[in-house]
Amino acid sequence: MRNLCHQSRFSGLPAFSSVWQRGVTLLELMVAVAIVGITLSLALPSFNDSIERNRVVSTVNEMVGAMNLARSEAIRTNRTATFCASLDQATCGGTWSDGWIAIADLDGDAVMDVLRTGTVSDKDEVTAAATQIDFNQRGLKTVPVGAATIAVQPAGCAVGKPHRRVVSVTATGGAFVANHGTDANCI
Question: What integer best gives the mean pLDDT of the chain?
């Protein structure tokens, strides 16, 4: 039987040794790292946009859920319920950027019980004309008179970028979100 692995004339090691065929070279590794770096540099800006959009959508969905809970509790208990800005997540007061609460008198003791609380990321801006929305026992919005809107967008959002969401509460108490057209563009 012949030995297929003969000596290399340059190094003294077998020419077809498995020692030479393990792993990757430094050059191959550097090329792979460069390709990954270029790919990430292209993908990260759009990923950051997705994170901003999802954070705003999540905040708005939580707000709408709390508004709907307050409205349904007003109807169920036959008493006024409130969705309002809250600094301490226990009482109404402060700005929407501080946080919000949904409150209602659940047991008729004239003390408002907290139904749900929420906060707004410091990376987001919230604008609204009113800091309180009241629902009467029929589920109708009584405060503020007229249209009630709450707009949420990422802080420092470029004008025209479609990351803004506007919650509108109708006179009948229904809440809906505008997420298209000019309402969705940052201002």
Answer: 88
